[in-house]
Design brief:
This protein has 121 residues and is mostly helical. 51% of the residues lie in helices and 3% in strands. It is built from four helices and two strands, in the order H-H-E-E-H-H. The longest helix is centred in the last third of the chain and has 23 residues. It starts with 33 loop residues before the first helix and ends with a helix.
């Protein structure tokens, strides 16, 4: 139910496999499955941004819910009473210095590409 997260998703198709074991890989904790659901959604957004040639933050801005969208029910039936997803995204991008971060990523990628090309010669 948590896969859509704070994003405006109109259609969804999920498949899951459940396995029972007495050899647990992690201890009991509240919200089991939520980290995996959120990772899945964020990874899908990164893949979509790459395929569309978009900045990862921009695809999130275009698809994230705004505080005015609440209350609402997600496509999977999860009821939300209130939240500030867009405002939280903008605050996180500002705190991390997103523009400078992306610029540094591009610089390092160019340098790595140049080094790889030079080592092949």
């Amino acid at each position: 139910m948590a896969v859509p997260g704070p994003y405006k998703i109109r259609h969804i198709h999920c498949e899951a496999i459940a396995v029972a074991t007495n050899k647990t890989t992690s201890s009991v904790y509240r919200g089991v499955g939520l980290p995996a659901a959120q990772y899945t959604m964020e990874h899908i957004l990164d893949l979509a941004a790459s395929k569309l040639g978009m900045d990862p933050a921009e695809i999130r801005r275009k698809n994230i819910m705004k505080s005015s969208d609440f209350p609402c029910t997600s496509i999977t039936g999860l009821n939300y009473d209130s939240a500030t997803p867009l405002e939280s995204l903008e605050m996180a991008l500002e705190k991390v210095g997103y523009a400078a971060f992306r610029k540094e990523q591009r610089r390092r990628a160019r340098r790595a590409s140049t080094s790889a090309s030079a080592s092949r010669r």
